[in-house]
UniProtKB/TrEMBL annotation:
The keyword Transmembrane helix applies. The keyword Membrane applies. The chain crosses the membrane at residues 1-21. Residues 27-129 form the Phytocyanin domain. It comes from Rhodamnia argentea. GO terms for molecular function: electron transfer activity. One of its GO terms (cellular component) is plasma membrane. This is Lamin-like protein. Keywords: Membrane, Transmembrane, Transmembrane helix.
């Protein structure tokens, strides 16, 4: 019975911790969406990316003709000159549906090899840290009682959980 009570207490604590975490949602961007056929030539990816904010944890989804195009991550010089000889990472996996995690805060540079970069198949994005969560707006009436209630609820929940756990251990 003690093991079951411990598991219940742990489940309650984890559930409360999950509720308290700020909501963070990574975004998956389909490269070139709304401007053509995904990762292709004759698309201005600078225009596509200019109104987007790319954050650490987001994803780029490249959709392209796997028999012609590729997804190569290069340095800034490789991007500017369309040099695909020594990519930092070859993200091409053969299906024409490649997902690139943006998991480091830095500039990323992508090109397609086989000369397609010269036709416009190149993308530069700057990955930033996510913005801080929004600050809760103050109460309309500024009542100290409402802020006091907020300060007492969470400790009370933990206290009730601890008492319940202790009760189950001794019963």
């Amino acid at each position: 019975m003690g093991r079951a009570a411990t598991l219940v207490g742990l489940a309650v604590a984890l559930s409360l911790a999950a509720v308290m975490l700020p909501e963070v949602a990574a975004v998956r961007y389909m490269v070139g969406a709304g401007m053509g056929n995904g990762w292709a030539t004759n698309v201005n990816y600078t225009i596509w990316a200019q109104d987007k904010h790319f954050y650490n944890g987001d994803w780029l989804y490249f959709v392209y003709d796997r028999n012609q195009m590729s997804v190569l991550e290069v340095n800034k010089t490789g991007y500017e000159s369309c040099i695909s000889d020594h990519p930092l990472v070859n993200w091409t996996r053969g299906a024409g549906r490649d997902v690139v995690p943006l998991n480091v805060t830095r500039p990323y540079y992508f090109i397609s090899g086989n000369g397609f970069c010269f036709g416009g198949a190149k993308l530069a994005v700057n990955v930033e840290n996510p913005p801080p969560p929004p600050v809760a707006s103050p109460e309309k009436n500024g009542s100290p009682a409402s802020s006091y209630q907020g300060q007492i609820v969470l400790p009370a929940v933990f206290a009730v959980g601890a008492m319940w756990d202790a009760f189950l251990r001794f019963c």
